[in-house]
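Re: the request from the purification team.
They wanted to know what the chain is likely to look like in 3D before they choose a buffer screen. I agreed to run a prediction and write the result into the notebook, where they can find it.
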Amino acid sequence: MIDVIKNSFKGFDVNNLDFAAAGSWPIGAKVICYALVFVIVLVLGTHYYISDKEQVLSTEISREGQLKRQYATESNKVANLAGLRKQMADVEEQFKEIRRQLPTEKEVPGLLEDITNIGIESGLVINSIALQGERKERYYIELPIQISAQGTYHQVGSFVSGIAAIKRIVTLHDYSLTPIAEGRLSISITAKTYRNDDE
């Protein structure tokens, strides 16, 4: 076979190639030319077709870790979904219970009366109980109540305990205790209650 290819090149000058007369080239020259064109097409096709695919593959491989972490997070959420729903129902129930403890606008005068009665039952001398201006917060309205009274340490403690036992939510702030006589104090306290903003 090699001898046949060698014999076909006799009288063929590579320096005088005429592509217009490629059909009359010897068979060996045609085979080499076809093989060369095939290799060039193969290399160029592989380069342009596979390089894009390699870039897509490397991008997807880099995303694999992120997708696995996202999958783990989502699967944990799904696994805990029943527990989370129960917690949500519990929180909503607690929220409803707390809202029931907030006084309505109509109940505020009764609340002031309750605070006055607790002070009197504790033995305090009530100087004044005055409702201050409302302060609107994001989810509720704050109702500060300024309380001024006189009494002993034990009477003040009894008063604070009585306020804590009220069914409605009342918090005490800004204590000021000033001794006025032996064993007696002048107290100034800001009590705050809250009501729903959606009334």
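For the purification team: The two ends are 104 Å apart (CA to CA).
Please add any questions underneath this entry.
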